[in-house]
Amino acid sequence: MINLRDILYVRLGTRDLEGAQKFCTEIVGLQAVERTADRLYLKSSASHHAVCYFQGEPGDHTVAFDIKDWSQLGAALAQLQSAGVPCGQGTAEEAADRHVEAFIWFNDPTGNRIEIVARPHDAGKRYFPSRDAGITGLGHVGLCTTDPARDQAFWLQHFNAMVSDWIGPCPLLRVNPRHHQMALFASQRKGIQHINFQVAEIDDIMKSWYFLQSQDIRIVFGPGRHPTSGGNFVYFEGHDEVIFEYSNSDRHIVGDLENYRPRQFPLHPTSFCMWGSKPDIAEFRD
Ligand SMILES: CC(C)c1ccc(C(=O)O)c(O)c1O
Ligand SMILES: [Fe+2]
């Protein structure tokens, strides 16, 4: 069993680093901490970064988690190798690029690239954005899956992942008490469907909703409230058509875990939003 602690960063390929920087700083409210000819690092908390854009193909996505016990990184790689999972160890140069001491990578059954990180670097400077979106940190990703049941079984077999709730066949998975760090999202493709940043309160959601409209940003869902995590939310389309979500989900799964039963919500609009907002998101329309 590989014990993960939390989601740490995402890496996104882009052909337009300048556009990514403008959108993420001026619209999303992330802080650019480092920029080179082919890299852009953006932070949302005390961690060195939550998002790294690299010069490359849009759609080339990676999600990273940190491991609870860094001394178990080698054992994690051995477990994945013996199970026949495509995987490998990052080089020292690749680790430096990620601002971590060490990492391994693997592909999930859909083909999503996931990294497991040991001793990620924190930053000496606190998060200080130019736009106050109320962000408190990276919350979760919506990760595309071509077979939700298969990929759920993969995550439950190898990791400390647990199902918090299902919407239709799609599980909301957690590796710590927060409601979810990953929402497996039925799709025909691999990659990240949305990136969630947690914000402090509902006022931040509504203030951003007005702000995003004033900037002609396409709102694709919300404002609304998820019955699953309980979070208020707004989703909007960003650079390279990646969708961003702000939410203030405060549901934690704690207490008598032996008897916790994930709730099964039907594949119906009310399961996505209890206020009646309708998503304008490709995967929902298919
Ligand atoms: C629409 C997606 C899959 C979704 C559903 C529920 C929650 C939540 O409970 O917070 C999300 O964050 C989602 O992104
Ligand atoms: Fe989400």
TrEMBL record:
SUPFAM superfamilies registered for this protein in UniProt: Glyoxalase/Bleomycin resistance protein/Dihydroxybiphenyl dioxygenase (SSF54593)
Pfam families found in the cross-reference section: Glyoxalase
PROSITE patterns attached to this UniProt entry: VOC
Highest taxon in the source lineage: Bacteria
Domain VOC: 6-119, 137-249
CDD domains attached to this UniProt entry: PpCmtC_N
Keywords attached to this entry: Metal-binding
Cross-referenced InterPro entries: Glyas_Bleomycin-R_OHBP_Dase (IPR029068), Glyas_Fos-R_dOase_dom (IPR004360), MMCE/EMCE_epimerase (IPR051785), VOC_core (IPR037523)
Protein name (database record): Glyoxalase
Organism whose genome encodes this protein: Hydrogenophaga electricum
Lineage, opening ranks: Bacteria, Pseudomonadati, Pseudomonadota, Betaproteobacteria, Burkholderiales
